[in-house]
Amino acid sequence: MLLMQRYLEKYYNFTSNGQQVFKSRISSPMAKKIREMQRFIGLEVTGDIDSNTLQAIQKPRCGNPDVGQFAFFPNQPKWQKKHLIYRILNYTPDMERGSIDEIIDKALKVWSQVTPLTFEKVLHGNADIYISFQSRAHGDFYPFDGPGGTLAHAYAPGPDFGGDAHFDEDEFWSSGVEGINLFYTAVHEFGHSLGLFHSQHPDAVMNPMYKTPMANQPILSQDDIAGIQYLYGASSNPPQDDEPRKPNSEDKPALPSACNPGLTFDAVTTFRGEIMFFWNKYFWRKHPQYRQIDLDLISEFWPFLPSGVDAVSENNEKDETFLFKGNQFWVVKGDYLLPGYPKSIHSLGFPKEVAKIDAAVFSANEKKTYYFSSDRYWSYDENSKTMNRSPQRIQNGFPGISGKIDAVFHYNDALYFFKGRNQYEFDLNTRRVTRILKANSWFSC
């Protein structure tokens, strides 16, 4: 039990807050986090500490959390320059210094081959990325744990520790299959140094679990490449030994894969126990407790709507869903359009200068609906049917969320704000951002 709790605290942002961690097999805080962990690493989602789960949490892995935390990933980090300087501060005695230099250079080239980034090694002076081998507590508040367990960790681009990669000196490092392969681990950690989160994709180098590298197998998966190229773009000089890519029908500007790490959404909402994710003229439907994802055309579900939506919000107390497009909105019960719609958004009380709604979400506790447009938000009192005439800055009402957002929805005790390829979990009790996730993390990719 204690081993499981410590694992969840370290990698899944678990806090018991003084509650009994296993008071109920279904609803306890720990059971919820176990299900989240099982879903992330591809285990059967039970919420139980079964043998497969115990085995998984004892495997060697990266020390970075599986859900984004501000300590490692503040906002959406990336380097603002293309030429980066690195410096190796010390060396493990497990390998020759020359071999380590070659492996570090080779690991960085894995990322430079698919991006415009270049890397330069220096022996002295300042650098963007500092690389070191450390043991136990080493001055960054994230101590290593001895042989096995945590192998290394790295920080996202930024000041202070930003970009730095630390390798656990208590491991036995090698260039082969004995001990821990330094090259494979370094490629993973440098992905963090460049701004990538962990991936749920089992073949991705950014998957948190250590795997013995296989000969003649590409080190980067398409998931890794898509993620890093979303941040920095593609290389202008791709490797020449790759096979030419064959064009196919998927190259057309059509529906992206649900597991594309660069996927963004136009709107997200709950809908009768499910979650709907809108993109262009489509939407995905996903129940939080099941892996299945259904894809539909908006026009097949609601034929009276225009193609695409700007914002969607469910009032689950009335079983009504509000859909916004431009300066109009529609209200439906299931697939039935209520009489009198569409109406102008200004009938809700918005000032004339508001031309469209970016996102909307209903708060059952407050009996209010929050509407977001540009970098401001309004609150609408569902009881009095009146709009607050004084909009607030999003960052003032929701610390950690700033600027324009793409979508938002309410689930359990949190709001999930979507900005680009990321979503931010905002705890309504503590009024702070607790996790940063990929926008499509709900899809169990």
UniProtKB/TrEMBL annotation:
Binding sites annotated in the UniProt record for Ca(2+) 3: D145, G146, D168, E171
Phosphotyrosine PTM sites in chain numbering: Y341
Hemopexin repeats: 262-305, 306-352, 354-401, 402-445
Cofactor: Ca(2+); Zn(2+)
GO CC terms of this entry: extracellular matrix; extracellular space
Record's keyword terms, sorted: Calcium, Collagen degradation, Disulfide bond, Extracellular matrix, Glycoprotein, Hydrolase, Metal-binding, Metalloprotease, Protease, Repeat, Secreted, Signal, Zinc, Zymogen
Pfam families (alphabetical): Hemopexin, Peptidase_M10, PG_binding_1
Motif window: Cysteine switch: 60-67
Residues given in the record as Zn(2+) 1 binding sites: H138, D140, H153, H166
Keyword Ion transport among record annotations: no
Residue ranges of the region described as Disordered: 232-258
A GO BP entry: extracellular matrix organization
An example Gene Ontology molecular-function term: zinc ion binding
Entry-linked CDD domains: HX, ZnMc_MMP
Binding of Ca(2+) 4, residues: D266, D310, D406
Catalytic residues (positions): E189
Gene3D superfamilies per UniProt: Collagenase (Catalytic Domain) (3.40.390.10), Hemopexin-like domain (2.110.10.10)
Record protein name field: Collagenase 3
Gene: LOC106552777
